[in-house]
Amino acid sequence: MSKEDYEIVIGLEVHCELSTKTKIFCSCPTEFGGEPNTHCCPICMAMPGTLPVLNEKVVEYAVKAGLATNCTISQNSKNDRKNYFYPDLPKAYQISQYDMPLCEHGYVTIETEDGEKKIRLLRIHIEEDAGKLNHDDYGRGTFVDLNRAGVPLIECVSEPDLRSPQEAEAYLRKLKSIFEYIEVSDCKMQEGSLRADVNVSVRKKGSNEFGTRTECKNMNSFRSIVREIEYEANRQIEVLENGGVVEQETLRWDDVSGRTFPMRDKEDAQDYRYFPDPDLVAIKLSDEYIENIRQNLPELPESRKKRYLEEYLLIPKAANFVTSSKYYSDMFEEAIKICNNPKTASNLMMSEIARILNEKEEEPENIPFTGKELGELVQLIDKGTISSSIAKKVLEELFVNPKAPSEIIEEKGWVQISDEGAIKEVVMKILEVNPQSIADFKAGKDKALGFLVGQAMKETKGKANPQMLNKMFIEELKK
Amino acid sequence: MQCGSSTETSSLFKTHNPWDLSRVPGGSSGGSAAAVSADMAPWALGSDTGGSIRQPASLCGIVGLKPTYGLVSRFGLIAYASSLDQIGPLTKDVTDSAMLLNLIAGYDEKDTTSMDMPKKDYTLSLVNDVKGMKIGVPKEYLGEGTSAEVKEAMMKVVKKYQELGATVEECSLDVGQYASAVYYIIACAEASSNLGRFDGIRYGYRTENFENLKDIYKNSRSEGFGAEVKRRIILGTYVLSSGYYDAYYKKAQKVRTLIKNAYNELFEKYDLLLTPTSPTTAFKIGEKMNNPLQMYMADICTVPVNIGGLPGMNVPCELDANGLPIGFQLIAKPFAEETIFRAAYTYEQNTNFRAEHRPTFKG
């Protein structure tokens, strides 16, 4: 049998840090960074005698996330202790949720090659993050930084509904985009505020039973998730094809070698001894509370997309693209407020901004300028101050040195030449050195016009107004 | 860290009973009880998870109150069993107890298990009158294992309350027989988790003898904890383990609910329940040291009160033939400390234990 005879089955456990101002059980800031052990207090450092108090905002944000992913919200829920020893876990237990999660049985819709597909969510629960271990480069040991200890997380567990690395990526992007839209997390993957445990198994096509799965912990880039799934599926297929058995194990992905490695041996199989945390009272939510959050949910991508298609008459491709990220969508809305030209604004985003981000391997949240600059740029095109080819150069410059586009073109001397006398001068100069093109044009070869305009643009370093060039060449050629 | 009913497993020193220095003061707040009893301190606070205020108060002849779970904040108390622990006063008399409770009771936003309700002035309950009060005496606590002298003392207390105008009758708390089993499962489970942080990394003793992380954990905890604490951590870890959780921890929680329900039923009929605080008076140091089960029997009368989350107070009443104090326990429904204060105060005003008896420091 070959690879094509197998089906990949993937499930993701996505951990997402909530963007509440304070931690889940104390009032320390959740802010990323800071000198080690400066964002912590006796409570998140687990000083004996301290007690946790649940941050109500955490519940609110998790309920928002649940509603935005079509979950049922549990009116009765509780916190449980997950007991294990690790130096980044000062209480020696993590407060999480075990058998009564806050949100259950939701789904999100992703776009696949075969159209839309529903990916079911088993549950979303709240829990606290652990601290961080810093291994000293000079061999002086390992240092514990508890700044992250107690930062609130939601863990979103999908059903094993994903069938390819591409579906897994689309699902994670969708989840990220939803959480950004409802403003419960900034989803910054480089800072670890969005990370996923990836469960992969393979089975023969047509089989109803799942294969043995492996779990790869703490993946924090789309690219490595896709690579890990591809690698792991191939590895498992190879094991099976050689008559072997896939071991259920926890893996670590190594980005450099592009391989997975077993993380723990079986002797260490953990028994977390979950039990209800007696320091915290049960979480009880009223119908009114849940309804109120539902009524006040920000506009979700689906609704924005509809609006863009109907109000701004974007083509579906553009509407899909702009709503794929809240950062794009917010930028777009800010831009068109200024320029009132949805078509050009969305085109620039879809072609130029996306291309530049792709080259830089960055995400939309890393765009260093705002919709204000984009709007102004479109305005400058519409006014004829710059050509669209100059606009592309301005965008490149905005990524490096974000400031008002008008300032950039002034500094760089990129203002479009729209002066009739100046344009005429260029046209005459180009015609003079290209007699063959004149002959071609007169012989009916329209292509020659394009060539001449191109030469004129080159001569003016892209600054000449292309419409005026076109017009004037035709006038002169027809003389 | 100290567990058990004698102070013999204390990480520092053993405490002696001021009434007989060869005997234990009770535990685990035995040091506090002995100090108040010996007039070394005007009053003290103790923590009570299964009887650690009331049992030593009884063995040392003073007043000890475990308030209703949720009346006093647990913030600042190093947790042993979070769903059972309460802080309470150890005092020479009932008046001091009410005054001290006034100071420590009340809602604390740092402890979500503390009850948000208006503050009370417990000294207003210091009224010398129990006429019409209904007191039930669960027969199960006067059976086998309770010494004859303790039983006799209880009968005298019953008689006294009847003379003072209360109705006292026998009742039954059948399900109470499971309280100790429930207690040792729940308390050990919670303790095994609460004591996890004493792992040699940030808190607790750290071994000098390690090669890797696993060694730090294993050796720090093996060397740092005493025998009784280890016994309880192992028991607690076991009852929470997958495969045993349902049979032990979950079942214990169910029985806990049954015990609470049984108490609720009794309190529909009675204002107070009356039991011995300890089935025996102070035992000799070393006597039960090697018999944990017998040691666990010492809190058989106090543990059910913690399981129910109820308030309970030890009131000293007699001396036995060896000159050792005997105490009785008054139990009320949740947040009915006033009823206890009233009945205890009335007993105190009409008897003379403290005036007639003082610790002798013999032995």
Main attributes of the structure:
heterodimer, A: 479 residues, alpha+beta, Arc Repressor Mutant, subunit A, three-stranded antiparallel beta sheet, elongated, B: 363 residues, Amidase signature (AS) enzymes, eight-stranded mixed beta sheet, 12 helices, 8 strands
CATH topology of chain B, what is it called? Amidase signature (AS) enzymes
**Strand-residue fraction of chain B?**
5-15%
Shape of chain A: elongated
Calculate the terminal CA-CA distance of chain B, rounded to whole Å: 28 Å
How many separate helices of chain B? Answer: 12
Report the sheet-strand fraction of chain A: 15-25%
Number of domains of chain B: 1
Low-confidence sequence ranges of chain A: none
Rg estimate of chain A, integer Å: 28 Å
What is the radius of gyration of chain B?
A: 20 Å
Order of helices and strands of chain B: HEHEEHEHEHHHHEHHEEHH
Q: Span between N and C termini of chain A?
A: 73 Å
Question: For the record, what is the CATH homologous superfamily label of chain B?
Answer: Amidase signature (AS) domain
Uncertain runs of chain B are: none
In CATH's first tier, which class of chain B applies? Alpha Beta
Strand order of the largest sheet of chain B: 1-3-2-7-8-6-4-5
Compute the number of structural domains of chain A: 3
Structural class of chain B comes to: alpha+beta
